[in-house]
């Protein structure tokens, strides 16, 4: 009898071991593969004037691979780090959340920022930046840099959203557009504190700014909360992270980026699904004098729907209790999850 129970125990242990071996690995358990890319681009595509540059991007692909890549463009005075915030990344890294959801991500440095080329600021506008990003989109779809993706979702924050709109409207070569932190109305009183924080990079001691011509702008030291986080709680470590990673902005980018959003609604030319996301307390675009109603997703959609065609199938999302740069919000994961669900519906997963 004792031998019988020993055999039963051994068999049970073997079965348990087998079940452990064949149990599926939890989604997102394996780390994604990340690598740096230097992507040849042009600010213009004219026969006698191309203005060739190099755009930096960090490509991260889930362990199981992906047919879809999200190409991500940061806003003014930001770089690719906005999409992969190092302070509490499980809460604040958009990149990590989308990789876990099964999407590859390519976080870009706009030309003139991060590890991208540093031309004269006079050459940089939202439209020339969009031309450069279009080269990136084509590379992702053609596989000229290695991986080839069947679908490209273009995502932007603030100025990066204006650039995304231009690419999607003009080139018609992406499969979806995430517009974050950009609307067709400005809060004319709320934007003033943000504008007053801007200063020439010449006056900032950050060593990286020595590579820029002195007409580039950035935020004055200690002004990141006032510029971009008003309306949300002051999380000093998060704001310090933002300050440490701040970057440059060409004045031309800001001018036509704002005009695009408020006077030239190119968004009506977008023919693919759009998700429009805002921080509920964004004091640049929401409330105040002439701003939009960001009190709820429904209210926001009512304001913004006339600026999009039916083909955009406009979706809206509002992250409560935070301002403009809401990837830094303590509740940013709500936005990340909403974006992942929308993207999964878009690609039919």
Quick summary:
The chain has helices spanning 2-22, 89-92, 94-100, 126-142, 159-171, 191-195, 224-229, 236-244, 251-262, 297-304, 332-346, and strands spanning 33-42, 52-61, 68-73, 104-108, 151-157, 176-180, 198-200, 217-219, 274-279, 315-319.
* Unreliable residue stretches: 1-28
Strand content: 15-25%
Give the number of DSSP strands. Answer: 10
What is the C-alpha radius of gyration, as a whole number of Å? 22 Å
- Distance between the ends: 54 Å
Helix percent band: 25-40%
User: Helical stretch count?
Assistant: 11
Write the H/E string, N to C: HEEEHHEHEHEHEEHHHEHEH
The major sheet is characterized as: 8 strands, mixed
| Rounded mean pLDDT score | 90
Helical/strand content category: alpha/beta
Shape summary: globular
Widest sheet, order of strands: 1-2-4-3-5-6-9-10
Describe this structure in words.
The protein has 349 residues and is of the alpha/beta class. 34% of the residues lie in helices and 17% in strands. The chain contains eleven helices and ten strands. The strands form two sheets. The chain has an eight-stranded mixed sheet, sandwiched between helices. Strands 7-8 form a two-stranded antiparallel sheet. α5 links the parallel β5 and β6. α4 packs across α5. The longest helix has 21 residues. The N and C termini lie far apart (54 Å). The N terminus is likely disordered.
């Amino acid at each position: 009898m004792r031998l019988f129970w020993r055999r039963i125990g051994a068999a049970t242990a073997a079965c348990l071991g087998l079940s452990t071996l064949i149990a599926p690995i939890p989604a997102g358990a394996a780390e994604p593969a990340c690598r740096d890319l230097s992507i040849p681009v042009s600010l213009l595509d004219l026969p006698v004037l191309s203005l060739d540059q190099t755009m930096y991007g960090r490509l991260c692909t889930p362990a199981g691979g992906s047919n879809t890549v999200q190409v991500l463009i940061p806003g003014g005075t930001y770089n690719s780090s906005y999409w992969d915030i190092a302070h509490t990344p499980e809460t604040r890294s958009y990149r990590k959340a989308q990789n876990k959801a099964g999407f590859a991500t390519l976080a870009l440095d706009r030309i003139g920022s991060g590890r991208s080329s540093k031309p004269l600021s006079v050459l940089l506008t939202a439209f020339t930046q969009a031309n450069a990003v279009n080269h990136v989109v084509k590379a992702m779809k053609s596989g000229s840099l290695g991986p080839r993706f069947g679908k490209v979702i273009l995502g932007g924050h603030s100025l990066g959203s204006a650039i995304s709109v231009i690419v999607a409207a003009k080139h018609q070569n992406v499969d979806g557009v995430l517009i974050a932190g950009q609307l067709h109305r400005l809060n004319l009183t709320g934007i003033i504190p943000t504008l007053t924080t801007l200063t020439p990079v010449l006056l900032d001691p950050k060593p990286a700014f020595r590579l820029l011509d002195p007409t580039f702008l950035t935020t004055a030291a200690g002004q990141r909360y006032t510029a971009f986080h008003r309306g949300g709680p002051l999380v000093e470590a998060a704001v310090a992270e933002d300050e440490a990673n701040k970057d440059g902005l060409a004045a031309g980018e800001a001018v036509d980026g704002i005009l695009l959003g408020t006077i030239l609604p190119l968004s009506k030319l977008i023919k693919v699904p759009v998700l429009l996301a805002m921080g509920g307390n964004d004091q640049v675009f929401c409330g105040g004098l002439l701003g939009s109603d960001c009190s709820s997703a429904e209210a926001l959609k009512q304001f913004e729907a006339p600026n999009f065609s039916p083909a955009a199938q406009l979706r809206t999302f509002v992250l409560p209790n935070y301002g403009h740069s809401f990837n830094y919000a303590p509740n940013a994961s709500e936005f990340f999850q909403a974006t992942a669900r929308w993207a999964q519906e878009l690609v039919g997963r």
